[in-house]
Design goal:
L-arginine/glycine Amidinotransferase, Chain A, 15 strands, globular, single chain, 3-stranded mixed β-sheet, Arginine deiminase-related protein, Amdntrnsf_FN0238, 346 residues, alpha/beta
Length: 346
């Protein structure tokens, strides 16, 4: 398993999708549905986009867990990375959410799946901070460098520094908070729209960090292990170029492959030299999701990566019975070695 790029992900297939009116005030990336387009049509288009992303990831060899959502009161449930993150060593974090109508996106069935299929020993739940008006919206609010153990965070009312420090203490990350604003002085609502950290490449809109000293500190910290840093423009950020995520897939032959998942819109905004820099270490997998992007998030927001070890897959009953029968009749091979599963398969 790659420390930075998970080989399995969680997606939520929301049957009812509309841009969330409760988040429109502070999400400068959010847009209205085209005039005259019904909610049913919007939801139908979004479902097709979700399915296309899931299939593209599967085709790249990524393990995809899709959870259906029939609840029509959760407009942003397609973005599970805001309430959930997973971490090596069997740790899971659950986060406090700013918009009250997003708080019931947290799902026990998702956590139960993680516990049953992966080695999950501890769930750290920060959601109890919501009544105090303190929020940290997961890997939307933070962009995590799992290799160097750094948590990058653009400060906003969805990303509180006190919770960041608490998270970093609990999960052994170095906090690196900074102010980030657009050209109109509007604070960036989520760090993952301006930054993406991969194993060997990172994309970040450094120009949106107004403090020059802090900007250079961020640049230096990103490159300390030889990582290539691609500087994004604000215009590219508005096309969701920063809202990408590195994943680890498999070729049909079973070889490991690294991919950078992003939207088609994001891919089209990148210059040829930027694409070449990404493709030095990753294959770009781009999927058009224009309807979902109306809600102010893109591909990265849709993906909750699973950084947990998988539990062993249980043997098929027929195969187990075959092994038991062989062991009863021939407990060892002629040279005294135990009979293995390979012998049965042969």
């Amino acid at each position: 398993m790659s420390a930075q790029a998970p080989s399995a992900v969680i997606l939520v297939r929301a049957e009812r999708f509309v841009p969330n009116p409760a988040t429109a005030a502070d999400n400068a990336f959010q847009r209205d549905v085209p005039q005259g387009q019904s909610d049913d049509t919007t939801s139908h288009k979004a479902l097709a986009e979700m399915d296309a992303l899931a299939q593209a990831l599967r085709d790249a060899g990524v393990r995809v867990h899709v959870f259906p959502d029939e609840d029509h009161t959760r407009p942003d449930s397609v973005f599970p990375n805001n309430w959930l993150s997973t971490h090596a060593g069997g740790y899971v974090a659950v986060y406090p959410m700013y918009a009250s109508n997003r708080r019931h996106e947290r799902r026990a069935d998702v956590l139960e799946m993680l516990k049953s299929e992966y080695r999950c020993q501890t769930i750290v739940d920060y959601s109890g901070l919501e009544p105090d008006g303190i929020f940290l919206e997961g890997t939307g609010a933070m962009v995590l460098d799992h290799v160097s153990r750094v948590a990058y965070m653009a400060v906003s009312h969805r990303a509180d520094t006190h919770v960041l420090e608490r998270f970093c203490s609990d999960f052994n990350y170095e906090p690196m908070a900074f102010e980030a604003v657009d050209s109109d002085g509007v604070p960036v609502y989520h760090t993952n729209v301006i930054a993406c950290v991969g194993t060997e490449v990172a994309m970040i809109a450094l120009e949106m960090i107004p403090d020059e000293h802090r900007r250079e500190q961020v640049r230096e910290r990103l490159t300390v292990n030889g990582r290539t840093v691609i500087a994004l423009t604000e215009e590219q950020v508005r096309e969701f170029a920063g809202n990408a995520v590195e994943l680890c897939g498999r070729t049909p032959e079973g070889r490991r492959r690294y991919i950078m998942a992003m939207s088609g819109r994001a891919r089209r905004s990148l210059r040829p030299d930027q694409v070449a820099a990404i493709e030095e270490s990753c294959e770009i997998v781009a999927v058009d999701i224009p309807t979902i992007e109306l809600a102010g998030g893109s591909v990265r927001c849709m993906i909750a990566g699973i950084h947990l070890d998988r539990r062993p897959v249980a043997a098929e009953p027929e195969l187990t019975e075959a092994v038991e029968a062989i062991n009863e009749e021939h407990p060892t091979t002629p040279d005294g070695q135990d009979v293995s599963m390979a012998d049965v398969n042969a």
